[in-house]
Every structure is written in structure tokens, then in C-alpha cells.
């Protein structure tokens, strides 16, 4: 298969305001080739996250398959959704035109498997920005996809504090068993967790900066971020909404915008109080082989430049 020099990615997401910005960035940047969007239950129910993905693709003119995936975790009952952060629709704030775009007939897991098997080894990067249920299910169902995966660049986890429980970050906590499958799959994992993403808070000054671009994408960005920043101020006392998921896309566009540290990361699936914790051996105290590169420090100025660059690509 011909190589056009662009990094081929599948965005597996649960839109979600920050997922929306990640999709916006991934769809147009010349360094990336977005092969498809797959959806999972997370920030809202599966029906709502799929509808949100379709609305985003329709609004932004993104012409790729949108495939609906898993609506329940691998093992446990469905976790709570993040309506307190993302609203009743999962994407409160913007008002979209009537939806005419339809989802692809394929299940997300089938799409992931088919797409990976159709490409060569180490060719496709998986970018999960929600719970890891679709990715884990694809790996368990068809192990032949594993050598096809160049890298798994995921938003999830934390070295330090969680944001859904004291111990756990939301995406991992939603389906820790799925995260366990992914972190033990043997393929390269980049973990973009809360320690890094909280360094990318969308303050009123950032919203004003992007508003000055005044194109279709910037207007969507501002509508999204005004709502998202307000709920994050109310729930967590933050200066602005952290752009968790877009950091995955920023890494793919310009890896130098962040510092990553190689370490062993274990997913806690047995403890009730610490279920979903990413136990990261930051100081390399064990003899366990490293299985992840974990985001530590973000060059925030560089990150916001990348976001602005992506928004300007919409003319």
C-alpha cells in the first residue's frame, strides 16, 4: 500500500468537548491521515457519543467512516457518565444543524480489525481518547492486529491524583479491565494522563485568542470551551477546561511539545477503592519491563500554537 508520508490514525473517542477538539485537529493536519472515527460509551451514553461524533464530522466537513462501538465495559456494569462536565448531550454548548450524516454500518471493533489487517505492520496508530473497551475487544477478538499497530497514543490515567475517584482517572476507571488488556498487549503505549493534560487549561485568554481567528472551526472551539471551562471551574476549581484529548494529537503532530518518561505502568483491577488506578513506577523501583511512555511535562505555549495552527486549517 502506497505511503503518502502522513501518519495513519484511527480516533477512538467518546465526544466529549475535548474529544471534539482532538477530532478537529486530527481531521485536517497535513501530518495526519484520519482513517476513521470509532465511538465508545464514556463521557455520555453510546448513542449520545455517536451522535456527537456525527454532528462534529458534519459540521467540520470530515468525510471518514464513523462507527459505533461498545456500549458497556468488558466485565463490570456501565460506569457513570460525565454529565456534570460535558452536559446532558455530552457536547453541551454548540447548537448544531439537523443531523443528516449517518453512522457506518460496521461495528467499531470490526472496523478497527478490518482496517488494521488491510495495512502493513507498524503502519497504523490507534488514538483512544475515551475508555479502552473497543481497542481491548479488537485485540482479544483478533490477535493478528497486534503487529499492525505502530503505537497506541491514549488519553487516560495519572501518575498522581485521579479525577473520578481519588485514585483513578475517568477513562481508565470506566473500563479498567480493557485498560489492562491494552497496557499488557506488548505494543508501544504513550499514556497522556492528567499530570500532563492539566498543564493545558483553556483559560478565557485562550478562548479570546482562538475567537480572533473567526472561522467555522474557531467558532465551534469557543462554543465548546466556554461550556467546558465553566464546568471544570465549578467541579475542580480550575482556571479553564483542561484539553485532555487534544494532547494526543499534539504529540502526533509535534512530539517535542511534551516530555515523556519511560516506565512500567500497571492497571489496578482488583481493589475496590483503587480500581482503575494507573500505578506508575515513576522512579523505576521495580524490575518490571517498561510498557509505557508517560506524559510528564507540556510546553504549553507550543501546545496552544499547535491548536491554533489546526484551527486555521479550516480557512
From TrEMBL:
Keywords annotated in UniProt: Glycosidase, Hydrolase
UniProt-listed InterPro entries: I/U_nuclsd_hydro_CS, Inosine/uridine_hydrolase_dom, IUNH, Ribo_hydro-like
Protein name: Nucleoside hydrolase
GO CC terms: cytosol
Domain Inosine/uridine-preferring nucleoside hydrolase positions: 9-305
MF terms in GO: purine nucleosidase activity; uridine nucleosidase activity
GO terms classed as biological process: purine nucleoside catabolic process
